[in-house]
């Protein structure tokens, strides 16, 4: 009838209702989607609503909190508590876990980074939200200190030229949804997301300002990227918002690294609400999510068991071809 309107919009709710038999999971994703719409609105109005700048506090990993970090956190906490399906919440912005009052408690435990890349807010560069979901065992924080194998759902929302939600049910496909602001709904726009089959673009993505702190194999790998593989040098791209850097890596190909180094022996990114959820997305899209050499071996990020809610982990995530360049450098180093 019309080219302008989809009369049968494939919404997020429709996808979730079709792909889980668990009504509480439908409620949870609906509440998460509400918080992403609120955050997107606040990010979009940051200039006019005077939301740039610092909130004045420092969080548990030493980051200066921005006003929008605090607001986004409150939006997520409110949406999740009132969903009635959560019992324990862990946020980058809260030192301690939040135990949901019994009258509102349900079976899900959710860890989240409410606003990722918040150093980019004040200059309007892409930011995001990252989340992972576990099921209650004893209702304590231990329910979240588990490896990625126990995570039932993980994903991110990217606030940029478009607002895009990407998530996966553990063991399932990776699916992408774009917010259609004209109807306020996330629409299923990317089906069964996979790394480009041919490896995609040769891109390396890292904060190269840390070069002097890196171990030799990481320095060597970045030198290989710059001098070229098969005569073709890599392109450098680094947004400095993990969500944006991972989203680009998934869509275009390449490798994103934030390794352990002499200054940060466990890396910078947080295991529970940055490392593990992104690792599940990357692996289920056909990529590799490695710690690099860490704690005596080269392991998967998804198999780490966090020993504290704000613990950190090193990250090497990307397509097999490009992560392979880094593995070769580890092999050469012996
Ligand atoms: P957050 O803004 O949630 O604290 O996360 C910051 C993280 C991540 O988004 C980004 O990839 C990385 O820190 C950037 O770190 P550098 O500024 O050290 O490059
Ligand atoms: Mn932070
Ligand atoms: Mn972050
Ligand atoms: Mn954050």
Automatic annotation (TrEMBL):
Q: Which InterPro entries match?
A: FBPase_C_dom, FBPase_class-1, FBPase_N, FBPtase, Fructose_bisphosphatase_AS
Q: Name one Pfam family in it.
A: FBPase
Q: Which residues form the Fructose-1-6-bisphosphatase class I N-terminal domain?
A: 11-189
Catalyzed reaction equations: beta-D-fructose 1,6-bisphosphate + H2O = beta-D-fructose 6-phosphate + phosphate
What keywords does the record list, in alphabetical order? Carbohydrate metabolism, Cytoplasm, Hydrolase, Magnesium, Metal-binding
In alphabetical order, the GO MF annotations are: fructose 1,6-bisphosphate 1-phosphatase activity; metal ion binding
The places in or outside the cell where this protein is found are:
Cytoplasm
Which class of enzymes does this protein belong to? Answer: hydrolase
Q: So, what pathway does this thing act in?
A: Carbohydrate biosynthesis
Required co-factor?
Mg(2+)
Extract one GO cellular component term from the record: cytoplasm
Q: What is its EC number?
A: 3.1.3.11
Q: Where is the Fructose-1-6-bisphosphatase class 1 C-terminal domain?
A: 201-330
Q: Which family does it belong to?
A: Belongs to the FBPase class 1 family.
Q: What is this protein called?
A: Fructose-1,6-bisphosphatase, cytosolic
